[in-house]
Amino acid sequence: MKALILAGGSGTRFWPLSRRRRPKQLLGLDAGTSLLRSTVDRLAPLIQPEDVWICTTELLADAIRAELPEVPDRQVLAEPEGRNTAPAIGWSLVAMDAGDDLVAVLPADHLFADPESFRGQLELAAGYARRDDRVMTIGVTPRWAETGYGYLELGASLGDDGAREVTHFREKPDADTARAYVDGGNHLWNGGIFVFQASTLLGHLVRFEPEIGAGLERIKNSPSDLAAAYGELPSISIDYAVMERLRGIGTVPLDGGWSDLGSWEALAEIMPKNEEGNAVEGDVIAVDSRDNLLYADQGTVAVVGVEGLVVVRTEDTVLVIPRERSQDVRAIVARLKADRRDDRL
Description:
The protein is of the alpha/beta class and 345 residues long.
């Protein structure tokens, strides 16, 4: 089995620590280890570095090669431009010349507290993909009624090992719907991890998105046309392009301490807390303050009498935001872009 790790990203959710040239997957958020490094490490021994491929951007390719020297340079694929996950996966499979190989596609920036359990479920999914020529996904057993994740609605059992058919991909729900999903026990979080035979997935992509199929064929036949042809591909996610249209997808459940680390709040949830409930990194002084995330990448963060905040200090920027609004850091990034403040992006 080969692994295709999707490692693009523009460095918005963990701004100001993350930037265009150092997005989330290159940050040391997993006990000081970059999320990308952890992603590759947790695949072994099931998948070795010589079978790992990375799809990223031209801006990040050199940094990723430096981070993963054991992955052959040619297996770090740099998209000419970002066109979302369906073109990225399709082009990568063509560049890999994957044929009928089994391929696991996974994000570069997720966290798993139990890597052994993850590998076991990945191997289980690969068995179904190989035996039934079925697209498989790994679903995450929901731990709360999350509105920020998509959900997999479960159908018939595929075996006595917990594998199930997926009847529907459900978009991010409102709070009441999410609560019904979790209480009903018939939904998993969509973790964005897929396993399939490469030729099978490409066939589905060509069938559902013929414009992408034609573009990939042009690139395959004329590699020098990559930049022009790639820029003309529709920008669409693999979920919209294929998964939500495809019947017969299967899933295996994972309950291994998964997090997509989608925000400062999500990081605060998994970090150790002191007696006051503060999650602390770096040189921090906290007086009469509770339930904060206080992160000093450089210098010192000092707070008095505050509660429920995210405070982040880097070399050139300080961020202060309520924990429950940590997703809104993207609004700051949008303002910086509008103001052409590239020095802070």
